[in-house]
TrEMBL record:
It comes from the Eukaryota. This is Predicted protein. Gene3D superfamilies: set domain protein methyltransferase, domain 1. SUPFAM superfamilies: SET domain (SSF82199). PANTHER family: N-LYSINE METHYLTRANSFERASE SETD6, UNCHARACTERIZED PUTATIVE METHYLTRANSFERASE.
Length: 378
């Protein structure tokens, strides 16, 4: 939820609700007895970064010491000394452990066994309920063997980017394979202005499967799992679905060729352009003029429009990445000026620097394509 939405939610819902039920929380308050926006935002931050879905009764809940459950014991001489140590379970993709709980409990009382709510019209006293407080637990289960004296890693999600980890949990990974940038259909349509039946074509397995093998030969495209993923990865490569969408948007709607055949011809032309731009020197005019004279003008126009759309998307993303004109700021200077004590802010700037680097890499590669095609088109 965006900060503006949170503030509006506090004024519309949170504050009136707290004031109506002040008798409940005032007894637990050690400070101010008046709800504040600052306190609400802090509480929201704590819950959103630490709560998880426990079961059908508790729902999204904060579980005590769920991220700090490491104990060790040591013995000293003849006396046994028990010592406990707590550490936060850090996040990695190849995690050692994960949390488990029985989700399918009674949504009315939380019972894991039979309860009065399981039968209509039966009094609670007539139900043999053996439930106890022992049902109220969760388990931390190991996925792989854990070597002695090693740090134990948990996971907060399989596909979280550094930006998501930072905003949700307050940290980032040095190397995160999930670092990618995505666009929504609305954001793409603002650049391209038309969608039509393109979503159906993008989600057509036949079209995607026909193209994915040849996509592997491109340095500018990467294949993604099933699903509509419109974005670029950490290497600045465009996702296959975004490429297909932009290719179709760039085509002449009156063409007689089917979409798969047309896109196949387009990627063939793009691979030819890539081979001539990837390792060429700008001063080498012979290499830069080597797109065949017989290249289909319609395909050249499609590739030109596609490259322009990708460059435009990257530029728009950088412009929307902060305050107006922040895309021109030297973030390295901004980072150097921040004191070490502002670790969270420094990490946020580092994430923006990483995202900008990805966008710059993608933008530069497609500007090379634009330049090569423009030379040929004249």
């Amino acid at each position: 939820m965006k900060q503006e939405e949170l503030i509006q939610y506090y004024h519309d819902v949170g504050e009136p609700l707290l004031l109506r039920n002040s008798g409940i929380w005032k007894g637990f308050s050690s400070g101010s007895v008046t709800p504040t926006l600052e306190g609400f935002l802090r509480a929201y931050s704590l819950v959103s970064s630490r709560a998880f879905l426990v079961d059908a009764y508790h729902g999204l809940s904060m579980v005590p010491i769920a991220d700090a459950l490491v104990f060790f014991r040591v013995s000293v001489s003849d006396n046994f000394l028990e010592r406990c140590a707590f550490c936060r379970f850090n996040h990695v993709h190849e995690n050692h452990v994960h949390l488990e709980s029985d989700f399918n409990v009674c949504p009315e009382c939380g019972s894991l066994t039979e309860c009065a709510h399981d039968r209509d019209g039966v009094l609670a006293d007539l139900v043999n309920n053996n439930a106890s407080e022992n049902d109220s637990f969760y388990e931390m289960v190991s996925n792989i063997p854990i070597p002695p004296h090693s740090e134990v890693f948990n996971t907060y999600g399989d596909n979280l980017t550094n930006a998501q980890l930072l905003t949700r949990y307050g940290f980032t990974l040095d190397a995160n394979e999930n670092d990618n940038l995505t666009w929504t259909i609305d954001e793409v349509s603002q650049i391209c202005k038309q969608l039509g039946e393109l979503l159906r074509i993008i989600n057509d397995d036949f079209t995607v499967n026909q193209l994915q093998e040849i996509f592997c030969q491109s340095q500018l495209i990467y294949n993604t799992p099933p699903g509509l993923f419109l974005g670029i990865n950490g290497d600045g490569r465009v996702s296959d679905k975004l490429w297909i969408l932009l290719g179709l948007l760039s085509s002449d709607r009156g063409t007689s060729a089917g979409p798969t055949a047309l896109l196949r011809r387009l990627i063939d032309l793009q691979l030819l352009v890539e081979s001539q731009t990837q390792f060429s020197d700008d001063s080498d005019s012979e290499n830069n003029q080597s797109i065949p004279l017989g290249a289909d003008p319609a395909l050249l126009d499609m590739l030109l429009k596609m490259a322009y759309s990708i460059v435009s998307l990257c530029g728009a993303r950088k412009r929307n990445g902060g305050v107006p004109a922040s895309e021109y700021q030297n973030l390295g200077d901004v980072l150097d000026a921040l004191p070490p004590a502002q670790s969270r802010t420094r990490t946020a700037v580092a994430v923006v620097m990483s995202e900008r680097s990805i966008l710059d890499s993608c933008e530069a590669a497609w500007i090379d394509v634009l330049t090569a095609v423009r030379r040929r088109v004249g």
